[in-house]
Design goal:
two-stranded antiparallel ribbon, globular, Chitosanase, subunit A, domain 1, mainly alpha
Amino acid sequence: MTANNYLACLDHVLKWEGGFVDHPRDPGGATNFGITRDTLSAHRGQPVSKQDVRDLTVGEAGEIYRAKYWDVIRGDKLPNGMDLVAFDGSVNSGPARGARWLQKGLGVPADGVIGSVTIQAAETARTGIQVIQRACAVRMGFLRKLGTWSTFGRGWARRVADTEAGAVAMYSRSADVVAGEADRAGRAKVANTTGATGSVAGGAGSGLLDLPEWALGGVIVVAVAVALFMALNAAQHARRATAYREKQKEMANG
């Protein structure tokens, strides 16, 4: 854990937040580097215009992210990698949620406030990589339920996969470990793809023709739901595998 990791985590966030955006379906309205008009107004202590948001500098954005997100989730006290998971989740969905996702990954009470219990659990975790992966899985479960998933879902899914891979790289500092996680994600993708296909085939099996019509319909609905769930998981595991491979190459190239 080190305060110096803030800049690396900030670079990750800025990569995904991008520059000035004013998407009509984004409830935050106009943003620049992920900073909304309301957030910038609060930081400056006065109302700001959309042009002020457009003119925001990276330096001021970094000050806002440190004060309103990094310091709130006590990033300087968390192990490298776990700090990124909490920080990126906080920026994307609020500090309380970012904290809760990490807490659920650690298996401690998820009260949305990172205090001494959470910090101690993070410092003493023997399976830090699994903590990171569980936290990212919980985050994905939350995002999939949002009404704006159909608009922003693919981008969010790629971001969570990239955050997971980046966090594991920070935590392990080993290209070999990252490569191993890429292989595991690839195998999980294959397993879920096979399971999705099997669910559909099972739901259409000839033996089901002997069932009453009302029961047959229910079985088919369940089979399709299971297949869809596994297909979504397969797609996310594919994104995870890609993110891990890209991170492994980045680490190998120094």
